[in-house]
Amino acid sequence: MLTESFPQVNLSHKPTPFERLDNLSNDYSTNIWIKRDDCTGLAFGGNKSRQLEYYIGHALSKGADTLLTTGAVQSNHVRTPYGALGYVEAAEEILDQLRAMAITPKCFFLPTGSASTHAGFLLGLLASDCAIPVRGVYVRRDAASQQQRVLEKIASVIELMGLDTVVERDQVICDDSFLAPGYGHSNPATQLAIETLA
What percentage of the chain carries pLDDT values higher than 90? Predict the structure, then answer.
């Protein structure tokens, strides 16, 4: 495992399920699968427990007895690379599931805001010799700004892990078409996606 040398605490039920969305797949005449990180088991679920496992592991390894973390733009929670390790691990987890199920996806889609999910997942795939594209759907800023943010996060994680993996700019695929009118505000395309999936 790429992240095995880093301190980690166990907060999540893993691996989380990887399930075919039958109705949606049938509606669009394709195969659409979802990684069910809502089933991590921590609080209401979600992917943040993957980050916290490494943040807390790192803090405990440094002797911390108090942990303060937030998701604000200027916080260390967003700037440090440790949280991205959770998504390097998630990439390895999903690759194991794909092999076991004999599935080869054409593309992965994921949300990207702080860049930890996007950077860690893409790096995890590439470091595992998997070139399946990852399309980050931006929730906070325009595609060009977010692409640079993801590249910077990837560089910091590569340095942290001591990897020789090279990630090219064109491998950081950006989609800001759902962003308007801005962060935290819905638009018709976003509302339709929510209603369709529900």
Answer: 70
Give dist(CA 50, CA 37) in Å, integer.
Answer: 9
Measured between alpha carbons, how far is 71 from 62 in angstroms, rounded to an integer? 21
Q: How far is CA 47 from CA 43, 44, 128, in A?
A: 11, 10, 21
| Domains and their CATH numbers in the chain | 18-197 (3.40.50.1100)
**Alpha helical stretches, state H, 47-115:** 48-61, 76-79, 85-101
- Percent of the chain at pLDDT above 70? 95
pTM above threshold 0.85: yes
- Joined tokens for residue 41: 């088991």
Task: Indicate if the pLDDT at residue 75 is higher than 50.
Answer: no
Q: Where are the beta strands (DSSP E) in the chain?
A: 18-20, 33-35, 108-112, 134-138, 173-175
Neighbours of 24 (CB within 10 A): 15
Give 29-69 pLDDT, tens digit per residue.
999 999 999 999 887 777 788 999 999 999 999 999 998 77
Say which amino acid occupies 107: C
